[in-house]
């Protein structure tokens, strides 16, 4: 026996109907209720799309009897007929026969009343914000983007691999790991700990992805990453999702090509698949959004070596708070100048000074730079960080020694250079930054359902 809900029709499909239909069941949350003479209008949303469906309850309808406690926020099931709407603004509406109230929402205390709430306020009720137009749209876009990521790599012949979340190695070497332990707070030694050694949440799946690429050829991992950076910026989360492809038999050029093609493809697919949800962001969040996204898919990204970027910044008339010189990390203000003013499109900066980049990046012949690349986007800043990896065992060993790292901690990573080493390259894309690009959202806390940031672990 199918359940009572099995014949439920999603609002998205009801609104796409091609003919009237009798005996339809729709379930959802009441967005608004309006009473007129002898009629009640309910706007119902079930999350399947941005639009609500209008439900009409006449005084003759059986649904009338259950209507009293139905107000904004209530969860209801409505049966009735799908009719062509004589009113403006919608093609279809439901003439209600019956109505069931699942859970009411006391108008005195339900926080989502019919008005625009600030993002700051909505962050304090992250459990309810997906029921607003904006956040419903956000999380549908997020889902569609995740699907597009898998689809893209699958089409390109990349295998999806799962890399560990519990790890013993600091992939980036930045020491921003969250420790994981089962020891009581005052315990003396890691030997007594669960794994008999230090354990942390991963900052990146790269090292293991490299490992898999050196067997399967082309792989990607798409998982959570954790960083205990105490950065209170609108672009950093302590827990975020990263897409990390890795290619064997590839160099920095291939890496840049893949990164650019990937971003442009995802944007283009989302423009086709989420037009209504994206249009909401274009209207209410950033009126230049759709224009910018369209341009991004139309024109190639700019590419410039780090040294060239430094030159542009030094020669610009702009005054920066942070000094610019060869060897300096590019700050947000520099990234914004390059992407928003100078090039007015995404920019790939490559060949960074080795001192400011991770140990695994391949040394260039100039002795000063490594084969690294960052893709910077207007308003978002760094969207992708990637590199060709150091595949020469002696060079990698020297670098580890230089940085005071223990070779034994990297034994398996070094083994990959000793046995069948090949040129290889990959990158990491911050999935939340991609969503900021797609929606124009200015704060990373608004593109992930339950953001984790310093001093914030609610929900
Ligand atoms: O540049 P990152 O640190 O590179 C890596 O982790 C490499 N292991 C990736 C690789 O080559 N496989 O991080 C990659 C991207 C950044 O460009 C940024 O988009 C995002 O991850 N990211 C963050 N996003 C949100 N919050 C944070 N705290 C982030 N840190 C990095
Ligand atoms: Mg980076």
What does this structure look like?
The chain is of the alpha+beta class and 459 residues long. The chain has two domains: 11-103, Nucleic acid-binding proteins (OB fold (Dihydrolipoamide Acetyltransferase, E2P)), CATH 2.40.50; 129-446, Bira Bifunctional Protein, Domain 2 (BirA Bifunctional Protein, domain 2, 2-Layer Sandwich), CATH 3.30.930. Helices cover 29% and strands 24% of the residues. It has helices spanning 11-15, 119-124, 133-155, 206-216, 252-273, 275-284, 289-298, 306-315, 332-342, 393-402, 411-418, 431-439, and strands at residues 21-36, 39-45, 53-58, 75-84, 92-103, 159-160, 166-167, 200-201, 218-226, 239-248, 302-305, 347-353, 369-377, 381-388, 424-430. The strands form three sheets. Strands 6-9-10-15-14-13-12-11 form an eight-stranded mixed β-sheet, with helices on both faces. Strand 1 and strand 2 (39-45) form a beta hairpin. Helix 3 packs across helix 12. The protein is elongated, with a radius of gyration of 26 Å. It starts with 10 loop residues before the first helix and ends in a 20-residue tail after the last helix. The structure holds 4-amino-1,4-dioxobutan-2-aminium adenosine-5'-monophosphate and magnesium ion. Residues 171-172, 204, 206, 227, 229, 236-237, 240, 242, 244, 382-386, 426-430, 432-433 line the site of 4-amino-1,4-dioxobutan-2-aminium adenosine-5'-monophosphate.
């Amino acid at each position: 026996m199918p359940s009572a809900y099995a014949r439920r029709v999603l609002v998205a499909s009801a609104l796409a109907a091609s003919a009237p239909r009798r005996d339809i069941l729709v379930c959802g949350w009441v967005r608004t209720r309006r009473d007129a003479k002898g009629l009640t209008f309910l706007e119902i949303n079930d999350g399947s799309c941005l639009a609500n469906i209008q439900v009409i309850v006449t005084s003759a309808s059986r649904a009338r009897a259950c209507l009293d406690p139905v107000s904004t926020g209530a969860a209801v099931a409505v049966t009735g007929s799908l009719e062509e709407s004589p009113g403006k603004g919608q093609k279809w509406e439901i003439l209600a026969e019956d109505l069931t109230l699942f859970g009411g929402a006391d108008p005195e205390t339900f926080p989502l009343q019919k008005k625009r709430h600030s993002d700051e306020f909505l962050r304090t009720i992250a459990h309810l914000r997906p029921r607003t137009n904006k956040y419903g749209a956000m999380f549908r876009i997020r889902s569609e983007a995740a699907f597009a990521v898998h689809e893209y790599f699958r089409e390109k012949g990349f295998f999806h691999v799962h890399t560990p979340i519990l790890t013993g190695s600091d992939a980036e070497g930045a020491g921003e790991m969250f420790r994981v332990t089962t020891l009581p707070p005052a315990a003396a030694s890691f030997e007594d700990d669960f794994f008999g050694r230090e354990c942390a949440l991963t900052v990146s799946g790269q090292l293991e992805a490299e490992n898999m690429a050196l067997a399967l050829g082309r792989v990607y991992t798409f998982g959570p990453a954790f960083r205990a950076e105490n950065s209170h910026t609108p672009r950093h989360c302590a827990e975020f999702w990263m897409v990390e492809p890795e290619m064997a038999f590839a160099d920095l050029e291939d890496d840049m090509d893949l990164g650019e093609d990937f971003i442009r493809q995802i944007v283009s697919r989302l423009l086709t698949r989420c037009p209504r949800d994206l249009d909401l962001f274009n209207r209410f969040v950033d009126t230049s959004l759709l224009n910018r996204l369209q341009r991004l898919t139309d024109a190639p990204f700019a590419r410039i070596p780090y040294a060239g970027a430094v030159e542009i910044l030094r020669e610009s008339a702009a005054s920066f708070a942070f000094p610019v010189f060869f060897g300096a990390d590019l700050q947000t203000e520099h990234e914004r100048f390059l992407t928003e003013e100078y090039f007015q499109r995404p920019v790939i900066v490559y060949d960074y000074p080795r001192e400011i980049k991770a140990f695994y990046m391949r040394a260039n012949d100039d002795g000063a730079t490594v084969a690294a690349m960052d893709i910077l986007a207007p308003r978002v800043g760094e969207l992708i960080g990637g590199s060709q990896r150091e595949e020469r065992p002696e060079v990698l060993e020297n670098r580890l020694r230089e940085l005071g790292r223990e070779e034994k901690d990297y034994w398996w990573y070094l083994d990959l250079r000793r046995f069948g080493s090949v040129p290889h390259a990959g990158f990491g894309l911050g999935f939340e930054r991609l969503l900021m690009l797609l929606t124009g959202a200015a704060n990373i806390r608004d593109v992930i359902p339950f953001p984790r940031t310093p001093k914030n672990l609610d929900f």
